[in-house]
Amino acid sequence: MGHLDDVNMSWFAHLRTAWGMAAVFLIGSIRLFVHGILPFVDDKAGQTTVAKARTRMGHDD
Questions:
Q1: What's the DSSP call for residue 38?
Q2: How far, in Å, CA of 3 to CA of 27, rounded?
Q3: CA-CA distance, 14 to 59, in Å (whole number)?
Q4: CB atoms < 10 A from the CB of 25, how many?
Q5: Which of 7, 20, 37, 61 is 20 to 30 A from 55 via CA?
Q6: How does pLDDT run along the chain (61 residues), one tens digit per residue?
Q7: What torsion do the CA atoms of 21, 24, 29, 32 make, to the nearest 10 degrees?
Q8: What is the pLDDT of residue 59?
Q9: Is 33 within 8 Å of 20 (Cβ atoms)?
């Protein structure tokens, strides 16, 4: 199955990981929409979302 072999994951493990990343970005997107309308609210929304995504992907440097 190409990609699944490349990432060494089962279909369900890949699904769980992909949905987890989607949730991080969905919540981050909502936070950024709110921040766009109200700039004084949640001024770290973008930085926090990127940091969480990097950590989930194993790039926590």
A1: S
A2: 26
A3: 18
A4: 15
A5: 37
A6: 699 999 899 999 999 999 999 999 999 999 999 999 999 999 999 999 999 999 988 886 6
A7: -140
A8: 83
A9: no
